[in-house]
Amino acid sequence: MTVHTQVEDDLTSHDYELALDRVASVAAEITEHLQTARACLDGSQGTVERPIERPVESPVARPEENRIVPGEVLSATDNPLSSGEAAVQYREPLPAPSAGDHQKALVELIDTLRTLAARGQRGRRGQRGRRGQRGRSGPRPGTTRPLNAAVSYRPSRQDPLAVSVKDDGFGLTELDLSHRLHQGFGRAFHREVARLGGRVRLFTAKAGDVWWNTAEFGVSAQRRVGVGTTLGRKPKRDTNAHGTELIISDLHPLGEIDGRELAGIRTHLGDVFSHPLAAGELRITVNGVPVQARRPCIWSAERSVRRGDLEIFAVQRFHHTGGRTKVCRECGRVFSSLVCPACGPSRATPVVGEVWGWLGVQRFADPDDYGIDVIRRGRKILRRSKRLFLRYPWSEDEREQEYPGALSRRGRLVGEVHCDAVPLVGAGTSLDFRSAEWRDVVSVVRGAGPLSPSARRHRGLPENISPLGLLVRGFGENVPGLSHLMPGDGWAAQHQLDRAWAEGFRAGDPEFQTDERWYEEARRHDELVAARHQFASR
After folding, report:
1. Does domain 45-52+66-131+145-290 sit in CATH 2.40.50?
2. Strand locations in 111-225, DSSP E?
Protein backbone atom coordinates (compact mmCIF):
# COMPACT_ATOMS: atom_id res chain seq x y z
CA MET A 1 0.00 0.00 0.00
CA THR A 2 1.34 3.42 -0.96
CA VAL A 3 0.21 6.67 0.57
CA HIS A 4 0.94 9.80 -1.42
CA THR A 5 1.17 12.93 0.68
CA GLN A 6 2.28 16.44 0.10
CA VAL A 7 2.91 19.23 2.58
CA GLU A 8 3.19 22.69 1.14
CA ASP A 9 5.83 25.01 2.50
CA ASP A 10 4.18 27.89 4.33
CA LEU A 11 7.41 29.43 5.57
CA THR A 12 7.21 32.11 2.91
CA SER A 13 3.96 33.35 4.40
CA HIS A 14 5.18 32.80 7.98
CA ASP A 15 1.97 30.87 8.75
CA TYR A 16 3.66 28.34 11.02
CA GLU A 17 0.40 27.33 12.70
CA LEU A 18 -1.14 26.36 9.36
CA ALA A 19 1.96 24.39 8.44
CA LEU A 20 1.78 22.43 11.70
CA ASP A 21 -1.90 21.70 11.16
CA ARG A 22 -1.16 20.39 7.66
CA VAL A 23 1.55 18.13 9.02
CA ALA A 24 -0.95 16.82 11.60
CA SER A 25 -3.44 16.23 8.79
CA VAL A 26 -0.92 14.18 6.84
CA ALA A 27 -0.04 12.18 9.98
CA ALA A 28 -3.72 11.49 10.60
CA GLU A 29 -4.16 10.29 7.01
CA ILE A 30 -1.20 7.92 7.30
CA THR A 31 -2.47 6.63 10.66
CA GLU A 32 -5.90 5.90 9.18
CA HIS A 33 -4.39 3.88 6.31
CA LEU A 34 -2.21 1.94 8.76
CA GLN A 35 -5.19 1.17 10.98
CA THR A 36 -7.17 -0.18 8.04
CA ALA A 37 -4.28 -2.35 6.88
CA ARG A 38 -3.61 -3.75 10.36
CA ALA A 39 -7.30 -4.47 10.89
CA CYS A 40 -7.32 -6.52 7.69
CA LEU A 41 -4.18 -8.46 8.61
CA ASP A 42 -4.84 -9.03 12.29
CA GLY A 43 -8.11 -10.71 13.30
CA SER A 44 -7.34 -11.17 16.99
CA GLN A 45 -9.84 -9.88 19.56
CA GLY A 46 -7.52 -9.04 22.43
CA THR A 47 -5.29 -6.08 23.09
CA VAL A 48 -2.47 -5.95 20.54
CA GLU A 49 0.99 -4.82 21.58
CA ARG A 50 2.66 -3.09 18.65
CA PRO A 51 6.38 -2.50 19.10
CA ILE A 52 7.48 -0.62 16.00
CA GLU A 53 10.62 1.10 14.89
CA ARG A 54 11.03 4.79 15.42
CA PRO A 55 10.28 6.73 12.23
CA VAL A 56 12.78 9.07 10.64
CA GLU A 57 12.58 12.40 12.42
CA SER A 58 10.96 15.12 10.33
CA PRO A 59 11.91 18.82 10.60
CA VAL A 60 8.66 19.66 12.41
CA ALA A 61 8.52 16.57 14.62
CA ARG A 62 9.21 16.71 18.31
CA PRO A 63 12.70 16.12 19.71
CA GLU A 64 13.47 12.42 20.31
CA GLU A 65 13.66 12.86 24.07
CA ASN A 66 10.15 14.36 24.15
CA ARG A 67 8.40 11.71 22.03
CA ILE A 68 6.75 8.38 22.59
CA VAL A 69 6.30 6.29 19.48
CA PRO A 70 2.70 5.07 19.35
CA GLY A 71 2.47 1.36 20.00
CA GLU A 72 5.78 0.72 21.69
CA VAL A 73 6.48 -0.43 25.23
CA LEU A 74 8.66 2.11 26.96
CA SER A 75 12.09 0.86 27.85
CA ALA A 76 14.12 1.68 30.93
CA THR A 77 15.97 4.29 28.90
CA ASP A 78 12.76 6.12 28.05
CA ASN A 79 11.32 5.70 31.54
CA PRO A 80 13.62 4.86 34.47
CA LEU A 81 10.56 3.64 36.40
CA SER A 82 9.35 1.18 33.77
CA SER A 83 10.33 -1.96 35.65
CA GLY A 84 8.02 -3.66 38.11
CA GLU A 85 10.54 -3.22 40.93
CA ALA A 86 10.65 0.53 40.36
CA ALA A 87 6.87 0.72 40.31
CA VAL A 88 6.67 -1.11 43.63
CA GLN A 89 9.34 1.18 45.02
CA TYR A 90 7.13 4.23 44.45
CA ARG A 91 3.99 2.66 45.90
CA GLU A 92 3.86 4.61 49.15
CA PRO A 93 2.29 2.93 52.17
CA LEU A 94 -1.00 4.84 52.33
CA PRO A 95 -3.92 4.44 54.73
CA ALA A 96 -7.22 3.07 53.51
CA PRO A 97 -8.86 5.67 51.28
CA SER A 98 -11.77 7.61 52.75
CA ALA A 99 -14.83 9.01 51.04
CA GLY A 100 -13.00 12.34 50.77
CA ASP A 101 -10.14 10.64 48.93
CA HIS A 102 -12.61 9.18 46.45
CA GLN A 103 -14.14 12.62 45.91
CA LYS A 104 -10.77 14.29 45.24
CA ALA A 105 -9.62 11.49 42.95
CA LEU A 106 -12.82 11.58 40.91
CA VAL A 107 -12.50 15.35 40.52
CA GLU A 108 -9.02 14.88 39.05
CA LEU A 109 -10.21 12.05 36.80
CA ILE A 110 -13.16 14.02 35.43
CA ASP A 111 -11.03 17.13 34.99
CA THR A 112 -8.49 15.04 33.09
CA LEU A 113 -11.24 13.75 30.80
CA ARG A 114 -12.41 17.32 30.18
CA THR A 115 -8.86 18.31 29.26
CA LEU A 116 -8.43 15.31 26.96
CA ALA A 117 -11.81 15.98 25.34
CA ALA A 118 -10.83 19.58 24.66
CA ARG A 119 -7.51 18.39 23.24
CA GLY A 120 -9.32 15.85 21.05
CA GLN A 121 -11.65 18.53 19.72
CA ARG A 122 -8.72 20.80 18.87
CA GLY A 123 -6.92 17.86 17.28
CA ARG A 124 -9.79 17.36 14.87
CA ARG A 125 -8.58 20.35 12.89
CA GLY A 126 -5.77 18.14 11.62
CA GLN A 127 -8.18 15.46 10.41
CA ARG A 128 -9.59 17.45 7.51
CA GLY A 129 -8.45 16.57 4.04
CA ARG A 130 -6.54 18.92 1.79
CA ARG A 131 -9.82 19.97 0.18
CA GLY A 132 -11.45 20.72 3.53
CA GLN A 133 -13.78 17.72 3.67
CA ARG A 134 -14.80 16.63 7.15
CA GLY A 135 -13.25 13.35 8.26
CA ARG A 136 -14.91 10.49 10.13
CA SER A 137 -14.39 12.05 13.53
CA GLY A 138 -17.85 12.64 14.92
CA PRO A 139 -19.68 15.95 15.19
CA ARG A 140 -18.56 19.07 13.40
CA PRO A 141 -16.08 21.31 15.25
CA GLY A 142 -17.67 24.13 17.16
CA THR A 143 -21.01 22.36 17.69
CA THR A 144 -22.34 22.73 21.21
CA ARG A 145 -22.80 19.31 22.74
CA PRO A 146 -22.38 18.42 26.40
CA LEU A 147 -19.63 16.10 27.51
CA ASN A 148 -21.12 13.04 29.22
CA ALA A 149 -18.93 11.61 31.99
CA ALA A 150 -19.96 8.37 33.70
CA VAL A 151 -18.44 7.21 37.00
CA SER A 152 -19.00 3.60 37.99
CA TYR A 153 -17.81 1.35 40.77
CA ARG A 154 -17.82 -2.14 39.28
CA PRO A 155 -15.70 -5.31 39.21
CA SER A 156 -13.15 -5.82 36.44
CA ARG A 157 -11.38 -8.83 35.00
CA GLN A 158 -8.29 -8.22 37.14
CA ASP A 159 -9.86 -6.86 40.34
CA PRO A 160 -13.01 -7.46 42.37
CA LEU A 161 -13.61 -3.70 42.29
CA ALA A 162 -12.41 -0.98 39.93
CA VAL A 163 -13.29 2.68 39.47
CA SER A 164 -14.16 3.63 35.90
CA VAL A 165 -14.62 7.15 34.55
CA LYS A 166 -15.46 7.54 30.87
CA ASP A 167 -16.84 10.17 28.50
CA ASP A 168 -18.23 10.41 24.99
CA GLY A 169 -15.87 13.14 23.81
CA PHE A 170 -14.00 13.25 20.53
CA GLY A 171 -11.22 10.95 21.75
CA LEU A 172 -7.50 11.12 20.99
CA THR A 173 -5.35 9.98 18.12
CA GLU A 174 -2.31 7.80 18.70
CA LEU A 175 -0.03 10.80 18.39
CA ASP A 176 -2.03 12.94 20.82
CA LEU A 177 -2.15 10.11 23.35
CA SER A 178 1.59 9.55 23.07
CA HIS A 179 2.38 13.20 23.62
CA ARG A 180 0.00 13.38 26.56
CA LEU A 181 1.55 10.36 28.23
CA HIS A 182 5.03 11.77 27.79
CA GLN A 183 4.00 15.07 29.40
CA GLY A 184 2.12 13.31 32.17
CA PHE A 185 -1.22 14.19 33.71
CA GLY A 186 0.18 16.38 36.45
CA ARG A 187 1.25 15.80 40.03
CA ALA A 188 -2.25 16.42 41.40
CA PHE A 189 -3.67 13.61 39.23
CA HIS A 190 -1.07 11.11 40.39
CA ARG A 191 -1.24 12.20 44.03
CA GLU A 192 -5.00 11.82 44.34
CA VAL A 193 -5.38 8.71 42.18
CA ALA A 194 -2.48 6.99 44.00
CA ARG A 195 -4.55 7.09 47.19
CA LEU A 196 -7.12 4.82 45.52
CA GLY A 197 -5.09 2.37 43.43
CA GLY A 198 -1.82 1.65 41.77
CA ARG A 199 -2.68 1.16 38.09
CA VAL A 200 -4.50 3.20 35.46
CA ARG A 201 -5.79 1.79 32.19
CA LEU A 202 -6.77 4.25 29.48
CA PHE A 203 -8.85 3.62 26.35
CA THR A 204 -9.43 6.31 23.76
CA ALA A 205 -10.51 6.49 20.12
CA LYS A 206 -12.17 8.76 17.60
CA ALA A 207 -15.32 7.95 15.66
CA GLY A 208 -14.42 5.92 12.57
CA ASP A 209 -11.30 4.34 14.09
CA VAL A 210 -11.18 0.55 14.06
CA TRP A 211 -8.99 0.39 17.19
CA TRP A 212 -9.11 1.62 20.75
CA ASN A 213 -5.74 3.18 21.57
CA THR A 214 -4.83 1.81 25.00
CA ALA A 215 -2.30 2.67 27.67
CA GLU A 216 -1.59 1.20 31.08
CA PHE A 217 0.67 2.79 33.68
CA GLY A 218 1.28 2.96 37.38
CA VAL A 219 0.62 6.03 39.49
CA SER A 220 2.75 7.48 42.23
CA ALA A 221 2.12 10.47 44.46
CA GLN A 222 5.71 11.58 43.86
CA ARG A 223 5.48 11.64 40.08
CA ARG A 224 3.73 13.60 37.34
CA VAL A 225 4.19 10.95 34.63
CA GLY A 226 3.14 7.31 34.50
CA VAL A 227 5.24 4.46 35.88
CA GLY A 228 5.90 1.54 33.55
CA THR A 229 3.75 2.83 30.69
CA THR A 230 2.65 0.24 28.13
CA LEU A 231 0.87 1.21 24.91
CA GLY A 232 -1.33 -1.05 22.83
CA ARG A 233 -4.46 -1.44 20.73
CA LYS A 234 -7.79 -3.16 21.11
CA PRO A 235 -10.25 -3.72 18.26
CA LYS A 236 -13.53 -1.80 18.48
CA ARG A 237 -16.85 -3.58 18.20
CA ASP A 238 -18.49 -0.38 16.98
CA THR A 239 -16.39 1.85 14.76
CA ASN A 240 -18.70 4.80 15.52
CA ALA A 241 -17.83 4.66 19.23
CA HIS A 242 -15.63 7.48 20.48
CA GLY A 243 -14.39 8.98 23.73
CA THR A 244 -11.98 8.20 26.55
CA GLU A 245 -12.18 5.87 29.55
CA LEU A 246 -9.93 5.74 32.61
CA ILE A 247 -10.05 2.65 34.85
CA ILE A 248 -8.36 2.67 38.26
CA SER A 249 -7.45 -0.85 39.36
CA ASP A 250 -5.21 -2.49 41.95
CA LEU A 251 -7.23 -0.58 44.56
CA HIS A 252 -6.02 -0.15 48.10
CA PRO A 253 -8.09 -1.89 50.81
CA LEU A 254 -11.28 0.04 51.39
CA GLY A 255 -14.61 -0.39 53.01
CA GLU A 256 -17.85 -0.94 51.20
CA ILE A 257 -19.02 1.98 49.07
CA ASP A 258 -22.60 2.32 50.21
CA GLY A 259 -25.41 4.57 49.03
CA ARG A 260 -24.60 7.32 51.51
CA GLU A 261 -21.01 7.61 50.31
CA LEU A 262 -22.14 7.61 46.69
CA ALA A 263 -24.58 10.43 47.52
CA GLY A 264 -21.70 12.36 49.10
CA ILE A 265 -19.62 11.84 45.95
CA ARG A 266 -22.45 13.18 43.79
CA THR A 267 -22.86 16.22 46.04
CA HIS A 268 -19.13 16.98 45.89
CA LEU A 269 -18.93 16.62 42.11
CA GLY A 270 -22.04 18.77 41.71
CA ASP A 271 -20.34 21.46 43.78
CA VAL A 272 -16.91 21.44 42.08
CA PHE A 273 -18.35 21.33 38.54
CA SER A 274 -21.51 23.34 39.24
CA HIS A 275 -20.92 25.87 36.46
CA PRO A 276 -20.47 23.48 33.48
CA LEU A 277 -23.26 21.28 34.87
CA ALA A 278 -25.69 24.19 35.17
CA ALA A 279 -24.65 25.56 31.76
CA GLY A 280 -25.32 22.21 30.07
CA GLU A 281 -21.68 21.79 29.06
CA LEU A 282 -21.14 18.69 31.24
CA ARG A 283 -23.25 15.78 32.43
CA ILE A 284 -22.04 13.43 35.15
CA THR A 285 -23.55 10.20 36.43
CA VAL A 286 -22.34 8.11 39.38
CA ASN A 287 -23.47 4.48 39.12
CA GLY A 288 -26.17 5.62 36.71
CA VAL A 289 -27.60 8.40 38.91
CA PRO A 290 -27.24 11.94 37.47
CA VAL A 291 -25.23 14.53 39.39
CA GLN A 292 -27.09 17.77 40.07
CA ALA A 293 -25.32 21.12 40.05
CA ARG A 294 -25.13 22.94 43.37
CA ARG A 295 -27.30 26.04 43.00
CA PRO A 296 -26.77 29.19 45.05
CA CYS A 297 -29.63 30.13 47.39
CA ILE A 298 -29.50 33.88 46.80
CA TRP A 299 -31.86 36.82 46.64
CA SER A 300 -33.28 37.71 43.25
CA ALA A 301 -31.32 40.12 41.08
CA GLU A 302 -34.37 42.41 41.13
CA ARG A 303 -34.18 42.94 44.92
CA SER A 304 -32.37 46.05 46.10
CA VAL A 305 -31.80 48.35 49.07
CA ARG A 306 -31.04 52.06 49.22
CA ARG A 307 -28.08 53.71 50.88
CA GLY A 308 -28.57 57.43 50.54
CA ASP A 309 -29.17 58.19 46.90
CA LEU A 310 -27.61 54.92 45.76
CA GLU A 311 -29.70 51.85 44.92
CA ILE A 312 -27.71 48.66 45.50
CA PHE A 313 -29.01 45.48 43.88
CA ALA A 314 -28.62 42.09 45.55
CA VAL A 315 -26.72 40.63 42.57
CA GLN A 316 -23.71 42.36 41.05
CA ARG A 317 -22.37 41.10 37.72
CA PHE A 318 -19.01 42.02 36.21
CA HIS A 319 -16.96 41.25 33.12
CA HIS A 320 -13.47 42.68 32.76
CA THR A 321 -11.08 42.11 29.86
CA GLY A 322 -7.42 42.36 30.79
CA GLY A 323 -4.11 41.78 29.05
CA ARG A 324 -3.28 38.93 26.69
CA THR A 325 -1.39 35.85 27.78
CA LYS A 326 -0.78 32.36 26.35
CA VAL A 327 -1.99 28.85 27.06
CA CYS A 328 0.01 25.81 25.98
CA ARG A 329 -1.96 23.56 23.61
CA GLU A 330 -0.05 20.53 24.88
CA CYS A 331 -0.35 20.71 28.68
CA GLY A 332 -2.82 23.58 29.19
CA ARG A 333 -0.41 25.66 31.29
CA VAL A 334 -0.94 29.44 31.25
CA PHE A 335 2.27 31.43 30.80
CA SER A 336 3.45 34.83 29.62
CA SER A 337 7.03 33.91 28.66
CA LEU A 338 8.17 33.01 25.15
CA VAL A 339 7.96 29.24 25.66
CA CYS A 340 5.97 26.94 27.93
CA PRO A 341 7.87 26.24 31.18
CA ALA A 342 6.81 22.57 31.08
CA CYS A 343 6.88 21.65 27.37
CA GLY A 344 9.43 24.08 26.02
CA PRO A 345 8.85 25.33 22.47
CA SER A 346 5.32 24.25 21.60
CA ARG A 347 2.19 25.55 20.00
CA ALA A 348 0.48 28.16 22.19
CA THR A 349 -2.88 29.84 21.89
CA PRO A 350 -3.18 33.52 22.83
CA VAL A 351 -5.90 34.11 25.42
CA VAL A 352 -7.34 37.23 26.97
CA GLY A 353 -7.11 37.56 30.73
CA GLU A 354 -10.85 37.84 31.37
CA VAL A 355 -12.31 38.17 34.86
CA TRP A 356 -16.06 37.70 34.97
CA GLY A 357 -18.82 36.38 37.18
CA TRP A 358 -21.28 37.58 39.77
CA LEU A 359 -21.58 38.34 43.48
CA GLY A 360 -24.81 38.00 45.42
CA VAL A 361 -26.49 37.95 48.81
CA GLN A 362 -27.40 34.60 50.31
CA ARG A 363 -30.88 34.26 51.80
CA PHE A 364 -29.38 33.04 55.07
CA ALA A 365 -26.33 33.93 57.15
CA ASP A 366 -23.97 31.20 58.35
CA PRO A 367 -20.64 31.04 60.22
CA ASP A 368 -19.02 28.91 57.47
CA ASP A 369 -21.37 28.43 54.51
CA TYR A 370 -20.59 31.63 52.64
CA GLY A 371 -17.78 32.97 50.50
CA ILE A 372 -16.76 33.27 46.87
CA ASP A 373 -16.07 30.37 44.51
CA VAL A 374 -13.03 30.95 42.31
CA ILE A 375 -13.38 28.99 39.07
CA ARG A 376 -10.72 28.19 36.52
CA ARG A 377 -11.78 26.51 33.28
CA GLY A 378 -15.08 25.39 34.73
CA ARG A 379 -13.63 23.79 37.87
CA LYS A 380 -13.81 25.36 41.31
CA ILE A 381 -10.30 25.83 42.62
CA LEU A 382 -11.55 27.64 45.73
CA ARG A 383 -14.97 26.82 47.17
CA ARG A 384 -16.70 29.39 49.37
CA SER A 385 -13.37 31.07 49.91
CA LYS A 386 -12.92 34.04 52.25
CA ARG A 387 -9.67 35.16 50.62
CA LEU A 388 -11.24 38.09 48.78
CA PHE A 389 -12.59 39.30 52.14
CA LEU A 390 -9.03 39.67 53.47
CA ARG A 391 -7.42 43.07 53.72
CA TYR A 392 -4.59 41.96 51.41
CA PRO A 393 -5.89 38.99 49.35
CA TRP A 394 -2.55 38.42 47.60
CA SER A 395 -0.58 37.88 50.82
CA GLU A 396 -0.03 34.35 52.10
CA ASP A 397 0.35 35.65 55.69
CA GLU A 398 -2.72 37.90 55.76
CA ARG A 399 -5.24 37.06 58.48
CA GLU A 400 -7.26 40.28 58.78
CA GLN A 401 -10.72 39.52 57.40
CA GLU A 402 -12.79 42.62 56.67
CA TYR A 403 -16.07 40.78 56.18
CA PRO A 404 -18.06 39.86 58.22
CA GLY A 405 -17.42 42.61 60.70
CA ALA A 406 -16.05 42.13 64.18
CA LEU A 407 -19.56 42.19 65.72
CA SER A 408 -20.96 39.50 63.42
CA ARG A 409 -19.78 35.92 63.11
CA ARG A 410 -22.11 35.07 60.22
CA GLY A 411 -21.63 35.90 56.55
CA ARG A 412 -23.96 35.74 53.57
CA LEU A 413 -22.06 37.20 50.61
CA VAL A 414 -21.39 34.58 47.93
CA GLY A 415 -20.49 34.52 44.24
CA GLU A 416 -18.54 33.04 41.37
CA VAL A 417 -15.36 34.51 39.91
CA HIS A 418 -14.06 33.02 36.65
CA CYS A 419 -10.38 33.68 36.03
CA ASP A 420 -8.84 31.23 33.55
CA ALA A 421 -5.64 33.24 33.19
CA VAL A 422 -4.50 32.98 36.82
CA PRO A 423 -1.61 30.46 36.91
CA LEU A 424 -1.59 27.42 39.16
CA VAL A 425 1.15 26.52 41.62
CA GLY A 426 2.20 23.49 43.62
CA ALA A 427 0.51 20.33 42.42
CA GLY A 428 -1.80 22.31 40.17
CA THR A 429 -4.67 22.64 42.65
CA SER A 430 -3.91 26.11 44.05
CA LEU A 431 -3.75 29.55 42.50
CA ASP A 432 -0.68 31.74 42.40
CA PHE A 433 -1.84 34.53 44.69
CA ARG A 434 1.32 36.54 44.04
CA SER A 435 0.82 36.69 40.29
CA ALA A 436 -0.20 39.79 38.38
CA GLU A 437 -3.26 37.94 37.08
CA TRP A 438 -4.55 37.39 40.62
CA ARG A 439 -4.03 41.06 41.44
CA ASP A 440 -6.22 41.84 38.43
CA VAL A 441 -8.92 39.63 39.95
CA VAL A 442 -8.63 41.46 43.28
CA SER A 443 -8.85 44.83 41.56
CA VAL A 444 -11.97 43.86 39.59
CA VAL A 445 -13.86 42.16 42.41
CA ARG A 446 -13.12 44.33 45.45
CA GLY A 447 -11.22 47.38 44.21
CA ALA A 448 -8.42 49.11 46.10
CA GLY A 449 -8.37 49.89 49.79
CA PRO A 450 -10.67 48.78 52.62
CA LEU A 451 -14.14 47.34 52.11
CA SER A 452 -15.72 48.92 55.18
CA PRO A 453 -17.41 52.29 54.45
CA SER A 454 -16.42 53.63 57.89
CA ALA A 455 -12.77 52.65 57.35
CA ARG A 456 -12.73 54.43 54.01
CA ARG A 457 -14.27 57.59 55.49
CA HIS A 458 -11.70 57.51 58.29
CA ARG A 459 -8.89 57.42 55.70
CA GLY A 460 -10.48 60.02 53.47
CA LEU A 461 -11.03 57.57 50.60
CA PRO A 462 -13.94 57.72 48.15
CA GLU A 463 -16.76 55.19 48.24
CA ASN A 464 -15.87 51.69 47.06
CA ILE A 465 -18.00 51.08 43.98
CA SER A 466 -16.53 47.66 43.16
CA PRO A 467 -19.01 44.72 43.12
CA LEU A 468 -17.89 43.50 46.53
CA GLY A 469 -17.63 47.03 47.92
CA LEU A 470 -21.24 47.77 46.97
CA LEU A 471 -22.54 44.57 48.56
CA VAL A 472 -20.64 45.20 51.79
CA ARG A 473 -22.09 48.69 51.89
CA GLY A 474 -25.64 47.49 51.30
CA PHE A 475 -25.69 44.09 53.02
CA GLY A 476 -22.63 44.03 55.26
CA GLU A 477 -24.65 44.00 58.48
CA ASN A 478 -27.06 41.24 59.49
CA VAL A 479 -29.94 43.51 60.44
CA PRO A 480 -33.42 41.96 60.09
CA GLY A 481 -35.94 43.72 57.90
CA LEU A 482 -36.29 44.91 54.33
CA SER A 483 -33.53 47.49 54.82
CA HIS A 484 -30.98 44.64 54.66
CA LEU A 485 -33.17 41.89 53.14
CA MET A 486 -33.10 39.63 56.18
CA PRO A 487 -36.08 37.86 57.77
CA GLY A 488 -36.86 38.40 61.44
CA ASP A 489 -39.47 37.69 64.09
CA GLY A 490 -40.02 41.28 65.23
CA TRP A 491 -37.09 41.17 67.62
CA ALA A 492 -34.10 39.51 65.96
CA ALA A 493 -33.00 37.59 62.87
CA GLN A 494 -34.13 33.98 62.43
CA HIS A 495 -30.90 32.32 61.41
CA GLN A 496 -31.95 28.76 62.21
CA LEU A 497 -35.24 29.09 60.36
CA ASP A 498 -33.54 30.69 57.35
CA ARG A 499 -31.12 27.79 57.21
CA ALA A 500 -33.95 25.24 57.35
CA TRP A 501 -35.65 26.99 54.43
CA ALA A 502 -32.38 26.89 52.50
CA GLU A 503 -32.28 23.11 52.98
CA GLY A 504 -35.74 23.02 51.44
CA PHE A 505 -34.42 25.04 48.51
CA ARG A 506 -31.60 22.56 47.89
CA ALA A 507 -34.02 19.63 48.24
CA GLY A 508 -36.14 21.09 45.43
CA ASP A 509 -39.17 22.02 47.53
CA PRO A 510 -41.29 24.33 45.30
CA GLU A 511 -42.24 26.50 48.28
CA PHE A 512 -38.65 27.66 48.76
CA GLN A 513 -37.37 28.01 45.19
CA THR A 514 -38.04 31.77 44.98
CA ASP A 515 -37.19 34.33 47.64
CA GLU A 516 -40.86 35.24 48.33
CA ARG A 517 -40.93 33.37 51.66
CA TRP A 518 -37.84 35.21 52.89
CA TYR A 519 -39.13 38.55 51.61
CA GLU A 520 -42.50 38.18 53.36
CA GLU A 521 -40.82 37.33 56.65
CA ALA A 522 -38.55 40.39 56.34
CA ARG A 523 -41.59 42.58 55.61
CA ARG A 524 -43.49 41.01 58.52
CA HIS A 525 -40.57 41.80 60.83
CA ASP A 526 -40.78 45.49 59.89
CA GLU A 527 -44.55 45.47 60.53
CA LEU A 528 -44.12 43.90 63.97
CA VAL A 529 -41.42 46.43 64.90
CA ALA A 530 -43.61 49.31 63.72
CA ALA A 531 -46.61 47.99 65.66
CA ARG A 532 -44.52 47.62 68.82
CA HIS A 533 -43.19 51.17 68.52
CA GLN A 534 -46.68 52.50 67.87
CA PHE A 535 -47.99 50.73 70.96
CA ALA A 536 -45.10 52.05 73.08
CA SER A 537 -45.75 55.64 71.98
CA ARG A 538 -49.32 55.65 73.27
Report:
1. no
2. 147-154, 162-167, 197-205, 211-218
